[in-house]
């Protein structure tokens, strides 16, 4: 068997690169290249293009070069060809299935809307593959990009070049696993109505369109397949120099995110770090890295309860020089990810241009209508945190009559739907339940206790999760420690609980101490 490529270290920021657009896709001749008419099931009408909008699911795959980057380029080209990518699955690291002597794949599925008929859609997909440099040397062999039509509405379609549903999809774990992630958009939250109200959106529990009686759902087909070895793991890219997150890998290590607040009024460390003192900044960042931090979260505005917001210009003036300095003057930080802690799109734009890798939005796009479209355009991974209201009003919005876990899950699914509607890919999303934000002490403790249950809610599986319990008020209430900086031991317990519950990232002030906690907790729970 060939030597597998290393696990993807993410991709470059595809959308922000100066990528030369592929040639505009010219109108295809409205006839099938072979001259053979398609064969339809007797109960189905002939599928044609035109003005009617159709829903299709397309398999995505790559095992050559920067695999995530190639898939993201393909999705951009689908949009440019007027094939609207509505939703995407997670991406999964998978082993080859048919030709074993090749490198590992990244696989996923996207849901698209198109006015093209099946054959026109096929021609367009193959044109995108060719334009992206695909070279097919052997059948089912290595490929830089692979785009296959899986489903087209609920139609059964047969042609010598195309079968819909895809004739091999029900035997492929790497197809069914991402396909079964498609769950309904919460009706009270999703803005867009289903194009086909008669077609259920709950893909895992749908049945494939097949002639004759069919009793198995997609989910049942997936469960009936032999478990692949090794188990495919979801992958969330961060940057070309930072390892991807693998939220479904039980042996993964927990990342420590160091908090760097360049603010005078943060609840715990306000005034500690000055945005203009680069000597102190260098010492702080080097200490974070030496202490075990792999991500540094930089914030320029306090979001503690009751805090006073600052303007975008002031926030940019605080964070951008610091990010630029870290990226240009601290060699030790070359492989460290930088996260920008903001809810403003303008700040995100400036921070990412300066070198930030991750967007950390406490409002999940609710406080700035431009945030999600901006994040989609920039193409960085984004942390969507659960919160209600604003930092000034959130303490009054702590009612969860349906239970904190179910309601947080429902509201996060709504923010995921909003992010996907804006064009953010599912594999670019990290979730945060928002400890201390629109929650009281019992809520925070229940989330820590039941994080694993929250992670397994349908529609929330396979996402990486961030937990931010550091020095929080509930820790002080329980321990009686009034000074936030002295809540180290209480924070240690919450960090250990976060790891036990499945957190991928813990956001902390006391980096060295919490790194030790995660190392021991990983040794206990990540096996």
UniProtKB/TrEMBL annotation:
The cofactors required by this protein are:
Mg(2+)
Q: Which GO terms describe its molecular function?
A: 2-amino-4-hydroxy-6-hydroxymethyldihydropteridine diphosphokinase activity; ATP binding; dihydroneopterin aldolase activity; dihydropteroate synthase activity; kinase activity; metal ion binding
Q: Does the keyword Cell inner membrane apply?
A: no
Q: Name one GO biological process term.
A: folic acid biosynthetic process
Q: What is the E.C. number? A: 2.5.1.15, 2.7.6.3, 4.1.2.25
Per UniProt, residues of the Pterin-binding domain are 254-519
Q: Which reaction does this chain catalyze?
A: (7,8-dihydropterin-6-yl)methyl diphosphate + 4-aminobenzoate = 7,8-dihydropteroate + diphosphate; 7,8-dihydroneopterin = 6-hydroxymethyl-7,8-dihydropterin + glycolaldehyde; 6-hydroxymethyl-7,8-dihydropterin + ATP = (7,8-dihydropterin-6-yl)methyl diphosphate + AMP + H(+)
Which portions of this protein are annotated as coiled-coil regions?
Answer: none
Does the record's keyword annotation contain Isomerase? no
Pathway recorded for this protein: Cofactor biosynthesis; tetrahydrofolate biosynthesis; 7,8-dihydrofolate from 2-amino-4-hydroxy-6-hydroxymethyl-7,8-dihydropteridine diphosphate and 4-aminobenzoate: step 1/2; Cofactor biosynthesis; tetrahydrofolate biosynthesis; 2-amino-4-hydroxy-6-hydroxymethyl-7,8-dihydropteridine diphosphate from 7,8-dihydroneopterin triphosphate: step 3/4; Cofactor biosynthesis; tetrahydrofolate biosynthesis; 2-amino-4-hydroxy-6-hydroxymethyl-7,8-dihydropteridine diphosphate from 7,8-dihydroneopterin triphosphate: step 4/4
Q: Which InterPro entries match?
A: DHP_synth-like, DHP_synth_dom, Dihydropteroate_synth-like_sf, Hppk, Hppk_sf, Pterin-binding_dom
One cellular component GO annotation, for this chain's record? Answer: mitochondrial envelope
Q: Which UniProt keywords apply?
A: ATP-binding, Folate biosynthesis, Kinase, Magnesium, Metal-binding, Multifunctional enzyme, Nucleotide-binding, Transferase
Family designation:
In the central section; belongs to the HPPK family.
Function, as annotated: Catalyzes three sequential steps of tetrahydrofolate biosynthesis.
Q: What is this protein called?
A: Folic acid synthesis protein FOL1
Q: Which organism is it from?
A: Penicillium subrubescens
């Amino acid at each position: 068997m060939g030597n597998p490529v290393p696990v993807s270290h993410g991709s470059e920021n595809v959308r922000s690169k100066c990528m030369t657009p592929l040639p505009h896709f010219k109108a295809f001749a409205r006839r099938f290249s072979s001259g053979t008419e398609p064969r339809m099931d007797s109960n189905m009408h002939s599928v044609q293009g035109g003005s009617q909008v159709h829903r299709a699911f397309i398999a995505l795959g790559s095992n050559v070069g920067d695999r995530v980057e190639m898939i993201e380029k393909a999705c951009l080209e689908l949009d440019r060809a007027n094939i609207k990518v509505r939703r995407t699955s997670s991406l999964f690291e998978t082993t080859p299935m048919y030709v074993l002597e090749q490198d590992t794949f990244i696989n996923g599925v996207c849901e698209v809307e198109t006015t093209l008929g099946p054959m026109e859609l096929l021609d367009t997909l193959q044109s995108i593959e060719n334009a992206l440099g695909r070279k097919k040397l052997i059948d089912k062999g290595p490929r830089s990009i692979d785009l296959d039509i899986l489903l087209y509405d609920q139609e059964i379609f047969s042609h010598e070049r195309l079968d819909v549903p895809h004739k091999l999809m029900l035997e492929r774990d790497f197809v069914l696993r991402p396909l079964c992630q498609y769950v309904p958009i919460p009706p009270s939250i999703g803005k867009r109505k289903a194009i086909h109200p008669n077609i259920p959106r709950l893909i895992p529990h749908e049945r494939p369109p097949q002639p004759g009686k069919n009793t198995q759902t997609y989910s049942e087909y997936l469960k009936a397949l032999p478990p692949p070895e090794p188990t495919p793991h979801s992958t969330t890219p961060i940057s070309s120099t930072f390892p991807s997150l693998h939220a479904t890998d039980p042996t993964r290590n927990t990342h420590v995110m160091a908090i760097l607040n360049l603010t005078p009024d943060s609840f715990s460390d306000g005034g500690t770090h000055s945005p203009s003192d680069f000597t102190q900044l260098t010492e702080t960042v080097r200490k974070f890295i030496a202490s075990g931090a792999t991500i540094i979260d930089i914030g320029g505005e306090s979001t503690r309860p009751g805090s006073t917001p600052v303007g975008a210009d002031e926030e940019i003036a605080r964070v951008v020089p610091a990010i630029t300095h870290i990226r240009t003057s601290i060699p030790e930080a070359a492989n460290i990810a930088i996260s920008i802690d903001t809810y403003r799109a303008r700040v995100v734009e400036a921070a990412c241009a300066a070198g930030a890798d991750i967007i950390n939005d406490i409002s999940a796009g609710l406080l700035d209508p431009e945030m999600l479209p901006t994040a989609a355009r920039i193409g960085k991974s984004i942390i969507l945190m659960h919160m209600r209201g604003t930092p000034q009003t959130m303490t009054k919005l702590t009612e969860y009559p349906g239970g904190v876990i179910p309601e947080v899950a429902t509201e996060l699914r709504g923010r995921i739907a909003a992010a996907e509607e804006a064009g953010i890919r599912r594999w670019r999303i990290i979730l945060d339940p928002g400890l201390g934000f629109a929650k009281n002490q019992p809520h925070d403790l229940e989330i820590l206790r039941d994080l694993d249950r929250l992670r397994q809610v349908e529609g929330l599986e396979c996402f990486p999760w961030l937990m931010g319990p550091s020095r929080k008020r509930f820790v002080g209430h329980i321990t009686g420690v009034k000074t936030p900086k002295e809540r180290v031991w209480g924070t240690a317990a919450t960090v250990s609980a976060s790891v036990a519950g499945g957190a991928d990232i813990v956001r902390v002030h006391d980096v060295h101490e919490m790194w030790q906690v995660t190392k021991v907790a990983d040794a206990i729970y990540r096996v």
